[in-house]
Design brief:
Strand order of the largest sheet: 7-6-5-9-8-10
Largest sheet: 6 strands, parallel
Radius of gyration: 20 Å
Helix content: 25-40%
Shape: elongated
Order of helices and strands: HHEHEHEHEEHEHEHEEHEH
């Protein structure tokens, strides 16, 4: 039976300050929760409805020793609705420990993304999923980028949160020290399909409304533009940042294939 304290804790994790204090976040749905468990995330609590409880037994926590194993708590559909941040809860909800950040060895020998003030949780989660799909080595985030452990971001990643190193840092400091190409998608850039690209570098994606900030823009060494192919008629001013990220990553990988 779901306790009041459990419900209070789970619902409190909607706020960043509470996630930071408790060092916990919420993941929902069999796909997301399953991927996180199999990738080494430590669950503090796991709730499941009767149809899903067996699937999230001890076999879903292979990395956890007997002392750390978290039993799956059976809840009713109504209780799951009260816990969930989703309009349509998906059988399983877990409270996970936020892991310590492990920095990649060097951004200079990798192909990574940098998010400069991307604030929409759906965009950030989708970009993490894109980074996973295209084999990006890391995603660097400015402090004003949406928190990756917010329920909406976690859900939008569809489990890719478990597969990509994500680091919050000062992008000006990171890019200022970079000894690799720094790419940025800008409206005054040059056609990405005709420009030379490198298999290594940092690709900067900017805020939904304002694009890349001036301090970061000054450190972009290669300005890229995704061209509009519908010439001569009125069209959208720009692409959604997640869509632009997918197109940009695709072009880099199209030229250089899979990561080494």
């Amino acid at each position: 039976m779901l306790s009041k304290n459990q419900l209070k804790l789970v619902r409190s994790l909607e706020l960043k300050k509470n996630r930071k204090r408790e060092k916990l976040f919420v993941a929902e749905g069999p796909k997301v929760v399953g991927d996180l468990l199999r990738s080494g995330f430590i669950p503090r609590m796991v709730f499941a409805t009767e149809g899903a409880q067996l699937s999230f037994s001890k076999a879903q926590q292979p990395h956890v020793n007997a002392q750390q194993y978290t039993p799956v708590q059976l809840v009713t559909d109504d209780e799951l609705h009260r816990l969930s941040f989703l309009q349509h809860p998906q059988e399983v909800l877990a409270v996970m420990e936020i892991p310590d950040t492990h920095y990649p060895s060097s951004a200079n020998s990798q192909l990574s993304l940098a998010l400069d003030g991307v604030q929409d949780p759906g965009n950030v989660g989708t970009i993490i999923r894109i980074a996973d799909w295209y084999g990006m080595d890391a995603v660097y985030c400015s402090p004003d980028t949406a928190d990756i452990y917010s329920p909406k971001v976690v859900q939008a990643t569809m489990g890719s949160l478990a597969h990509v190193p994500i680091i919050y840092c000062d992008l000006v400091e990171l890019l200022g020290k970079a000894k690799c190409p720094v790419y940025g998608t800008l409206l005054d850039g040059s056609d990405i399909y005709t420009q030379p690209l490198s298999p290594h570098g940092i690709i900067v994606m900017g805020n939904e409304g304002n694009g890349i900030s001036a301090p970061v823009r000054s450190l972009v060494s290669h300005r890229l533009l995704i061209p509009n192919f519908n010439k001569g008629v009125e069209t959208a001013e720009s692409l959604n940042v997640a869509i632009a990220t997918a197109i940009t990553c695709s072009e880099f990988r199209r030229r250089y294939g899979t990561k080494e």
